[in-house]
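Marked as duplicate of an earlier ticket. Keeping the data here for the record.
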Amino acid sequence: MPYSGKVAVNGINFHGSAEFIFTIADANGSIHWSSATEEQKSLEIFVVNGRYFALLGGQGTPPLPPRLFLDHSSLILKVSVDLKDGEGMRPLLPDQPITATPLALAAEYARIA
């Protein structure tokens, strides 16, 4: 699932290497997928003028569960980032609701299943 976002600090677009953790959760806060694993705690991504791109379920992250979007109709993406500035991992807010694209993929999966 492709995802792109923006990082700014005090209104200035960040540029450089950063560590990210992506988590998919439901409205109750139950986590259904995370990019962080035992072997890899975060994903290093180079941010260009505030913009970054990640392929969730690819790009060195665990695969997304096949039924994730079938079993859960309302999910949110939580993104945390470490800008390597000594402040550690912090959330990028607001959390993002997962909308049309993954749900369309789930509908196609259900149609052919």
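See parent ticket for discussion. Residues 27 and 75 are 7 Å apart (CA to CA).
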